[in-house]
Amino acid sequence: MNNGILLADLTRCEPRDAISRDGRDGTWIAVDYVLGEGAGTMLMSTPESGAPDLTLTLVANGWHEIRLGIYYGGGAGTPGDRFLCAKLTGDAAFSRFGREVHNRKDGTYPEKQIGGFDIAEVFWRCADLAGQDLVFARPPRGKVAEYESCLAYVRLVPMDETAVAAWHREQPTAGTSVLIGNYDGGNISQWGVSTEQDVLAEFECMRDSDFDIALYAVAACCRVGYPSKVADYHDNEWARRRRENGVDLLAEAIGAAHECGVKLFPQNRLCGLNLPPRSHRDVHRGEFIAEHPQWLCRFHDDEPTRHLSLAYPGVRDFYVRMFREWVEDYRADGVNVLFSRSFPFAYYEQPVRKAFEAEYGEDMRKVPQDDRRTWKARATFVTQFLREIRAMLDEVGRAQGRELANCYLVPHGNAQPGFPYETAKAPLDEPLHAALDCETWIREGLVDYLVLHMHFYMEHDGSPYREVIEEYARLAKGTKTKIIADIYPRRLPPRVYRKIAMTYYDAGADGLAFWDSYGRYYRSSEWAFVKRLGHRDDLPRWEGKGDDYFRVLPLERLDEFVTGRLLSGPTDG
């Protein structure tokens, strides 16, 4: 790789008085270091520092690759989490950066391992730098603001005409916009989303990418994160701050997603009641569930579960009214329901038992749980729910002169304990066991985007789920339903993303989805490749692409001390 221009002395950032050696309030701490390429001075800040945004003048014009070097060494001599925000002066919002750690269930990737005296260099993007500088900052709010921040250097690699042309060929087209990002909860508190700029930063990672749709969690059961006429407003710290700032989360999210070039489908995870001490029904899941305990799912002995049942018309009506608000009042592009979590959706309630007895002449409670007839009986009520959603979307769409879509996630590989079959032998049985009759959904045209949420850990090439995707693709052929394969695990280097994507496309997937996208996009070296995975025809010739998006550079000196020796690191415990 061309090492390009290394901007290693960050003490020339402005404002200069926001940089100190002693870490006084309102400053970034300057720390000297030496790499094989020479000496530099990194900047670090602590959560309590109050350190402001800094601007680094970029001594380059024209097209360059931009790579950031970040030091993650912790106080005990091991790497720790640090978070950074950065943007070019021409950008609308900050991009976010964090440590690209892997755990055991992701697989083993030696090239991603960093030590206590290593700098992790990550590829961010390519850009024309004419008239642009770099601005970097601490995370302003949320859990990530409780961590330290660091920027060690900026590397600018000049691009020739061939490289620029290749970059332009990688830009999204109508044919490559087949990716779905899933913000399935957690990002609000993680980043303290409470201002318009916070919301825009949520979707900046999808700008100029192959992402077509963002699924954005705004509801959990009967409680929502925006001022609703139907459901209860989630009254936590960040909701209160949004209210004080005059920020309507749903309206801002739709606008921000559109500005970044993607559609937005609000999402509801049909959560059940929490365990104590967070079990107060009206506080943690909304007044609707508190006021209707008779509409909870039931075990075979009539004991209640913690989940509302879609077997009751009143429950289905409540959710449909919520979804109507999304598309009618807020003009969202569609709706999304997570059926990959929060089981059961219908169980042994009286309407289910009556339907089973009417169909089969037997008491459902006396039939073995692995009898597929019980699965089908439950599934009829979820299918009816989807029919009612489809009817509402068509009605609102006709009135607004546009088409409204839906997206549903179904489980594969994360079944309940004791699930009585092997996924590869009966692909549609796992969701059916959870009352999700995907075959009927496809046949009746009830689902536009069917996301196969496939839980699979450790390194793989996609082959464990080839048969699953092939079966869905066969059912969806010639229908309106697009089959979207969710790539798991969440943390993978580009070479593994490429292998899995190629397998899933070859098996018949129309697109790819990414669970916990908000936990992936700050992994810059991986996300830079993920955002191009809609280029299915280019993947076969992209072998090796992205291998240099992450580099480990060992420090020779840090803070004037030599590194790499037996007692170089802290030994105090």
- Uncertain regions spanning at least 5 consecutive residues: 415-421
Strand content: 15-25%
Mean pLDDT across every amino acid position? 94
- Rounded to the nearest angstrom, the radius of gyration is 25 Å
SSE class: alpha/beta
The CATH architecture of the domain at 5-169 and 550-562 comes to Sandwich
> Distance between termini?
39 Å
Within the largest sheet, what's the order of strands? 13-14-17-20-21-22-23-24
Assign an overall shape: globular
How much helix, percentage-wise, in residues?
Answer: 25-40%
The tally of helices reads 15
* Total strands: 27
The main pleated sheet reads as: 8 strands, parallel, barrel
CATH T-level fold name of the domain at 5-169 and 550-562: Jelly Rolls
Q: In CATH's first tier, which class of the domain at 5-169 and 550-562 applies? A: Mainly Beta
Give structural notes.
The chain is of the alpha/beta class and 573 residues long. Among the domains are: 5-169 and 550-562, Jelly Rolls (Sandwich); 292-444, no CATH class. The strands form five sheets. It has an eight-stranded parallel beta barrel with strand order 13-14-17-20-21-22-23-24, surrounded by four helices. Strands 2, 3, 4, 11, 26 and 27 form a six-stranded mixed beta sheet that branches. Strand 22 (449-454), helix 13 and strand 23 form a beta-alpha-beta unit. Helix 8 runs parallel beside helix 10 (372-400), helix 9 crosses helix 10 (372-400) and helix 13 crosses helix 14 (494-507). The longest helix has 29 residues, at 372-400. Mean pLDDT is 94; it is low at 415-421.
